[in-house]
Amino acid sequence: MSNIRTVARLAGVSVATVSRALAKPDLVSPRTRKKVLAAVDRAGYKPNLMAVQFRSRRTRNLVVLVPTIANPFFSRVITGIQQRAREAGYQVLLCNTLGQEDIEREYARMVQNFQADGVIQLRAFDPFSNEADAEGAGDDSLLPMVNACEVMPDCSYPSVQLDNRAAARAMTDHLVRLGHQRIGLVKGPQRSPLTRDRIAGYREALEAADIPFDESLLCPGDFSLQSGHRAAGTLITRDNPPTAIFCENDEMAIGAMQRIKQAGLRVPEDISIAGFDDIAFAAYSDPSLTTIAQPAEEFGATAAQLLIDLLEQGPANAPAQVLLPYDLKVRDSTGPAPTSDS
Amino acid sequence: MSNIRTVARLAGVSVATVSRALAKPDLVSPRTRKKVLAAVDRAGYKPNLMAVQFRSRRTRNLVVLVPTIANPFFSRVITGIQQRAREAGYQVLLCNTLGQEDIEREYARMVQNFQADGVIQLRAFDPFSNEADAEGAGDDSLLPMVNACEVMPDCSYPSVQLDNRAAARAMTDHLVRLGHQRIGLVKGPQRSPLTRDRIAGYREALEAADIPFDESLLCPGDFSLQSGHRAAGTLITRDNPPTAIFCENDEMAIGAMQRIKQAGLRVPEDISIAGFDDIAFAAYSDPSLTTIAQPAEEFGATAAQLLIDLLEQGPANAPAQVLLPYDLKVRDSTGPAPTSDS
DNA sequence: GTGAAAGCGCTAACAC
DNA sequence: GTGTTAGCGCTTTCAC
């Protein structure tokens, strides 16, 4: 493998000049630059990026911490991140953490080990938190991180998120206007702020319509198809079942829909179903799913931009907190509440 | 930031000893090791991995080239890769190439730039190919790469794939046994070997049953929901429409199913539908989808293992070519051919 | 505009 | 077992 010295010899210049010709072309004369480029070509020279990064203390790598790449919503977010990063000359290292904190910490440490310049975290968890605590380190300078999608409460990092409360309120309101009074809610993971915000929005809409909040209409879920299926089973077999079910994501809504049809009920004539995220399959379920669309790629692009700003311009006084718009997509899975009660 | 010298001073040993204590603990005495570890802790020392990798000429990074992470099948494969890689002490750098050759080449170059030790390519395309040609380089030593899932014909790299021909044949045979004589086939991307192999299997099954091959029953597709929807539209509105449609992946099958129901036809009473891959949504479509299950995680784990072997033991005489088993999952979307021939 | 030379932080011979 | 030392390939002062 040829190195910078080979090229220098071939071009009849010093290694410093080769380095400059490649990294800062306007610092060398056009003639020299040409000579160097020719030599590079002749030697088949490829700079050893490990050496470059080691020496210049920058990797141009961004680490993305994603709980699961199997989630179609995240894959769109990631695509957005990658596009923006590429434009700015950064590479993206995707880390599938499976939501496990130790894996998350391990990957986040790549920044401390100089393997990456910054982190985009798609989950409400601070992978740097208890390290500093444990060390009793007075190191209060935050590491370069941006939090997107699911954002930590009182987040001291720049963040990008949806107004989940408003979106859930809008969806619940849509159901209320269709005449539904008993609306089931299939929740996401208990600890997620997303879950809490969406429940809050749901409650707000009920209050605004003077419908009493009934805790027993809430069902646990974990964003999987299976959990939606299970939750729907619980809800439709209870006394006085709901006439509509709002699921906190589309997978659970699709799972719920199957369970309802298996029970011989019709969607939306007997029960309306609503989801959240607008994944590709939402438009292809039967009936097609009413849901909240999120600008997923924009989440990614915005998060990448915030991180790049942070890296290249240093931390601002107050970290940016971006709120992105939602879009209520009314399709065929929601309809008027059945008139004959019970 | 503290470095190895700080630690050496603190522990009262040489830098070499610190290096050894960390990388090869059994080469130093327990006492020294303890002293070093204590110093590491006290200094809050984190090795600069850029320096380590630069110096040792190994990154312990594996690059995975994936056409699109939005594909649920790939996300399972990737999970398998990551698990095996982690066990062996490697990190995975996921590169979403969107099937674009220039992006693929760019990422593959990370190996040449010493940013990664090897590549796992999930698409039938050699990102290193025309580089060598262009340079006229006599460099016939293949770069460390493993090809998985969609494998290049006459592949000179180690590879892992399904016996796609046998699988397609099994599925077609399943439909033939149900009495179907006119079986539509929705193809994948034209250039993919997957597509060709599956068509070959389809033809074999027809031949075995003495059913003449009818080219007009083949429809183009690109593995997307939309393309399945479109293809089904074409097939059901033609003269003498097929009584079954075999789609080369599940997304297209789900798209096709929607189109068929929109036309007022029933699945499987009027038309049977079959898919390929067994993604999570396949079991949750209405009716649930008959499909070919692939051991996706195992694809990933096997590919990772082959690459690690290649890296740690050097190339074998003949590259390993692994064939993984398929599993025909008969669900509710396929049934007997309608008796009244129209 | 260019070259000489000093390292970045670490590992790996090689001595002892 | 441990220390000394010579770099890995590159960037970046600092002279000229």
TrEMBL record, chains A, B:
Signal peptide: none
GO molecular function annotations of the record: DNA binding
Entry superkingdom: Bacteria
InterPro entries: HTH_LacI, LacI/GalR-like_sensor, Lambda_DNA-bd_dom_sf, Peripla_BP_I
Entry annotated with the keyword Iron: no
Keyword Zinc part of the UniProt annotation: no
HTH lacI-type domain mapped to chain residues: 2-56
Keywords per UniProt: DNA-binding, Repressor, Transcription, Transcription regulation
PANTHER family associated with the record: HTH-TYPE TRANSCRIPTIONAL REPRESSOR PURR-RELATED (PTHR30146:SF148), LACI-RELATED TRANSCRIPTIONAL REPRESSOR (PTHR30146)
Protein name: LacI family DNA-binding transcriptional regulator
Organism: Microbulbifer celer
